[in-house]
Amino acid sequence: MIELPSGVDINNLIDDIRIFSWQAADILLYYSKLLENSDDKGNILQNNNEDDPVTLADLKVNELIIKKINEKYKNINWDILSEENIKISSKIFDSKTDWIWVLDPLDGTKDFIQGTGNYAMHLALNFKQKPYLGFVLIPNKNQLWIADGKKTWCEKRDGSIYEPILLKNRNLHEMTLVTSKNHGNEILKNLIQEINFCKVKIMGSIGCKIASIVHGESDIYICLSLPGKSAPKDWDFAAPESILKAAGGAITNLDNQELSYGKTGFQQGGIIVATNDKKTHPSICLEIKKIIQKSGIYPL
């Protein structure tokens, strides 16, 4: 059994992160509303990188979460890995502790700017490079998904709770795929056509996609990164992985190997498959791999 760092009670910790998360939701909703006015957009965007935009919302949530954790939990032996801090700091993140918070203050920034509502905050507490606790906040849907290492549930701001709904025992062609809105590529599109899913849903933010699986709205997500191109990072997957696995789903690479965190560059490249059923997940991965090998559309 995994024990949290000395002096940390899991129930109190979840209570605190719950409070911090809804405070983050207020920030994200505030800036989302401002972005509806084109006159405000220039002030909110902090760079001109269309492929990797940063907004004031990213920075404000980043500042809030790190400040709150550090203030509430002084002298606890853990570190905080944040997407925004990695972007702005020249220092190499070199943690010597088993416990690391992994934060993405705004996953789905493009969708946030576009006003689709498909954006999320990810926060996971990793132990020995594996997600243990996880929080996926989806402000526009009034959802805070929480995983405590054993189970997953979703809370609304008023405290009402509902449980995961994972629609299991479906074969690959019966599944509903949830896929990227802003990060697709031709090879992934070709693979989706080859598999011929029952239905395809388009959605931004990995957190939103995984939440849609846990909520029973879809069954599978495939992330395909091209060799030598950009790929998702640890903060894109840590929190979503925690809520999916604790709910009974699975997320691995195509060879059914668990994701590895803390690698150089924090890359999560290659092909990653997330499904709603850990029992059938290996066979689903194998079937997808055979389709890729037969079609030759991706170098394995």
Word description of this protein:
By secondary structure, the chain is α+β, with helices and mostly antiparallel strands. It has nine helices and twelve strands. Helices cover 36% and strands 21% of the residues. The strands form two sheets. The chain has a seven-stranded mixed beta sheet with strand order 1-2-3-4-5-6-7, with helices on both faces. A five-stranded mixed beta sheet has the order 9-8-10-12-11, with helices on both faces. Strand 3 and strand 4 (130-138) form a beta hairpin. The longest helix has 25 residues, at 10-34.
What's the SSE blueprint?
Elements: H1 10-34, H2 38-44, H3 56-72, E1 79-82, H4 83-88, E2 99-107, H5 109-114, E3 120-127, E4 130-138, E5 143-147, E6 152-155, E7 161-162, E8 176-179, H6 186-195, E9 199-202, H7 206-214, E10 220-224, H8 234-247, E11 250-253, E12 271-275, H9 281-295
Parallel strand pairs: 1-2, 8-9, 8-10
Antiparallel strand pairs: 2-3, 3-4, 4-5, 5-6, 6-7, 10-12, 11-12
Helix pairs in contact: 1-3, 7-8
